[in-house]
Write a structure and sequence with these properties.
CATH architecture: 2-Layer Sandwich
Number of helices: 3
Helix content: 10-25%
Largest sheet: 3 strands, antiparallel
Shape: globular
Order of helices and strands: EEHHEH
Distance between the termini: 29 Å
Radius of gyration: 12 Å
Oligomer: single chain
Low-confidence stretches: none
Length: about 80
């Protein structure tokens, strides 16, 4: 079974969204609608907020469908 994964990045982080894990709680777009907007394509625009603000919001995802990695860590 393959798990669908989508990546959205800015200059510092890579946000991973795994739709198969998403429970559609709405916490992401209620908390940071300038970044997370399911009516838009792409629905995540990682350049629309400060990196730490996005990290803080991603950490609130109750299902773990959203996560992040630092780009600097990926390059090691």
């Amino acid at each position: 079974m393959s798990i669908d994964k989508h990546y959205y990045r800015n200059s510092e982080i890579n946000i991973l969204w795994q739709p198969g894990l998403c429970i559609h709680s709405g916490i992401c777009f209620k908390g940071l609608p300038e970044v997370f907007d399911p009516r838009r394509k792409p629905w995540i625009i990682a350049g629309n907020a400060e990196t730490q603000t996005m990290i803080d919001q991603v950490k609130k995802c109750p299902s773990g469908a959203l996560s992040f990695t630092y780009l600097a860590d990926e390059e090691k």
